[in-house]
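Archive transcription. Copying these from loose printouts into the bound notebook so they stop getting lost. Printout 1 of 2:
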Amino acid sequence: MSDRSKKIFLAFSIIVPFMLYCVYYYGMMIGNAPFKFSEFESIDFKYGEGNNLNNNYNSKTGKYQYVNNHDLLVVKTVRLTQDDLLYLHRKAAELGFWDFPKEILGDSSRKEIKNSLHYYIAFHYKRKSKIVLFDTAYNDDPKLRDAAAQVVKEIQQRLADAEDRSK
């Protein structure tokens, strides 16, 4: 066998199958990504003290209900723009929201934790949903707590901006 035929045999038996496998494997991974903005449907955001999540927002209906500083229940229609939703989707991806556990809760045996703020965050897509319940009294993993708090802050900021636009 000549050198040229050895190189051709090597290329066809090792390099070409490896390249085909890489294209197939990574193509499937990219194609099956579970959280694509093109499949995005809505965001549900609820918060309140303890188990009382009486403040809530649904991006599909635009209904925003919250208790103001005077303990009055305010119900408004606030619409987030596509840019707002895209920003929240990308911010969630950047902060690793898709890898968060379902519950980020503090030690429930302590009294002050029972009255701490709880946040329910749900991103709904056509094929899948990501739902996280976050307790501000969570102290086990500071990076996870900070990332979850950042997601909450971004959602609240976008809601406040949308509310200001609608005035």
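Printout 2 of 2:
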Amino acid sequence: MIKFFHVVAIGGLIASATYAYTIKYETLYHGEQLAKLKQRSQKEREAIAVLKAEWQHLNRPDRLQMLSERHLALQPLAATQLVRFSDIPARAPKIDDIGRKLEALGIGDDTPTASITRSGSATTGGQPARAAPSPALSPAPPRPPQRPQ
């Protein structure tokens, strides 16, 4: 009986040692992965800093002024180029291409067709559509209150 307990104890010792080494090596592996990620993120930060420095160098005002003078034919703003808001012409009316084609075919205004205006109401031939009151849609008289039973 004692030999059986010795075998079980030795087996438990081997299992716990194996488990401890497994945990140790997994911890080392994850620590190495973390160090690699930190190193990679540091390299990315340095690359971003270099790109920001290059962007600031390329966007210097004196460099942009020189490039605009070389490649653009810009002139100073003249007082005659300024207008008042009231001098701006009104927006042209929207042209309905389909309506124009229908009018060209002779289908346009002679037949009263229902359409929907911007406000959402129906119109017939330019006039607001007036539907006859339907008895099914008219409001029903109010019901008397019911007593609880």
